[in-house]
Specification:
It is built from three helices and three strands, in the order ααββαβ. The chain is α+β, with helices and mostly antiparallel strands. A hairpin with a 2-residue loop joins β1 and β2. The protein is elongated.
Length: about 130
Amino acid sequence: MYRIIRSSLPAARGLKTGLHLAAVLTSALGMAACQQYQTPSDLLFAPGFSTTRQSIPYTYNTPYDCRNFSGSGWKAIASGLVHNFGDQYRISQAGCFKTQSECQAYLSVMHSYIDVPRFMRCNPYTA
């Protein structure tokens, strides 16, 4: 017959309790350091970022605006549907970049804003 033998050493039980206490204190201090979060529910249910029309990155009148781009590079086109609570709207953005890695990085950022992507692609571009 087999029996489960539990450790009855007080040191083992004390170590386990101390580790739990250290984890709770670390979590409490970490949350207290974040001034914008006051309670655990604030931390869990706070929105990641706003997806209003004003918060979506635009390339117009920036160095990545295709109207001002010269030479060869890559053109990123990102379009799709954005859901913001009860609102939903379609967006379409384009930007021109010197390297393909910059183009892919831009599409990655746009993918975080677009909930239902319709078209996301980097194409070679010459102005």
